[in-house]
Design a protein that fits this description.
Shape: elongated
Largest sheet: none
Number of strands: 0
Distance between the termini: 48 Å
Structural class: mainly alpha
Helix content: 55-70%
Radius of gyration: 16 Å
Order of helices and strands: HHHHHHHHHH
């Protein structure tokens, strides 16, 4: 619980938490230690969030965050992708990774992925069009609405 709180506090400091960068990167790797301490994936997720909030100052974490986009826990994988986007990972890499993981992204986080595509914009986000088209058939009205808006922005001719 202490490590989770510490990571959450560090995320509020953003780039001013740079001194904690090495410790946050280590936290991404210590799944066994976390389990031994009775911690959950939330400690790692909080560390991922803190790294994302550091923006370009967390470039050192890009290799580990990239690895985490393939994590078996979809929550961790998607949060890592969000952090990479905030750090400045190239938009085409973000979209390509999102396409690979989209089916396993928890439904409550899909809206963030759709917003990310909107922020990335044209032309890079066009590779994510299947995600947006998938959003049109979501049972969640907010996802359907947002998907429609982003398609209208990026490729209105693709709307059914």
């Amino acid at each position: 619980m202490v490590r989770w709180r510490a990571a959450r506090v560090l995320s509020r400091f953003g780039q001013h938490a740079q001194q904690a960068l090495p410790s946050l990167i280590v936290t991404l790797d210590d799944g066994e230690l976390g389990r031994a301490l009775g911690e959950t994936i939330w400690v790692r997720a909080a560390a991922v969030d803190a790294l994302g909030e550091m923006g370009v100052h967390a470039n050192e974490a890009i290799p580990k965050l990239t690895e985490l986009t393939q994590d078996s826990n979809a929550h961790t994988a998607f949060r890592s992708l969000v952090a990479l986007r905030k750090i400045g990972w190239h938009p085409t890499n973000v979209v390509a990774s999102m396409m690979k993981m989209w089916r396993s992204v928890p439904s409550e986080q899909k809206i963030y992925g759709i917003r990310m595509l909107s922020e990335i914009g044209h032309p890079e986000a066009l590779d994510g069009l299947p995600i947006l088209l998938d959003g049109l058939s979501s049972p969640d009205e907010s996802i359907r609405r947002l998907s429609t808006n982003v398609i209208q922005k990026l490729a209105p001719e693709k709307l059914p």
